[in-house]
Amino acid sequence: MPQPHDILFRTLADPTRRAIFERLCREGDLTVRALTAEAGVSQPAVSKHLGVLKRAGLVRDRHEGRQTHYSAELGALSPLIDWTNQMTGFWQSRFDDLEDLLNRMDQ
Amino acid sequence: MPQPHDILFRTLADPTRRAIFERLCREGDLTVRALTAEAGVSQPAVSKHLGVLKRAGLVRDRHEGRQTHYSAELGALSPLIDWTNQMTGFWQSRFDDLEDLLNRMDQ
DNA sequence: TCGATCAATAGCCAGCGGGTTATCGATTGC
DNA sequence: GCAATCGATAACCCGCTGGCTATTGATCGA
Fold this sequence. Notes:
2 copies of one chain form a homodimer.
Chain A: H1 4-13, H2 15-27, E1 30-31, H3 32-39, H4 43-55, E2 59-64, E3 67-72, H5 78-106
Antiparallel strand pairs in A: 1-3, 2-3
The structure holds a DNA duplex.
């Protein structure tokens, strides 16, 4: 039972893999060849990273003849956003609790 | 030249370490002993994780007698928030570009 | 049809990192 | 003063994962 944000953190932890995802976010739709050209690693390595990204739901693939296009799936980032909101939210509620306490002490 | 969000992703990728950070976010200020009690790993392992979190700027430590208190440093999360905003932002601007294109085609 | 290109898979290897136990220094309570 | 507790460090081990090369299957161009 791995939580959704767990997979995201693990998937995005690797710099090479994250760089691939970033390019897809910026440039929108790229072939494996195009991605490999600037990834700094071999084509199989890129394919492996794309596989991981796909299983994490972060990218979609589209087959067109003998080449495969990948594109970013930005909705998949929401668990990450939720997580950070939750963390900062915990802090906020602790702050509110403190404020409440101080208010009660005032009376 | 590791970018700030790079360190954050790597640091938060490990579930045990992230769980420790989450507890500090929820409960605010805990000793190593208290953290170890529910971490599911040994005390040295917890200390090691706290070291990594500290070097990432995600926690602060406070020495009080023979025990050390740790607390979350939420500001350190901002590079993460910035990164997600950037990614979704790229998408947004690509969408805008498309919209512009379509508008021009209308004319 | 046949050579060339594209991408995925297989198989392998090396390094990193997260776990452990043992220990040590510092602090505290009796 | 001495035993006990707390937390950090040392030293070590093992598994995972990210990299590579080689290969295969599929598609395209000539």
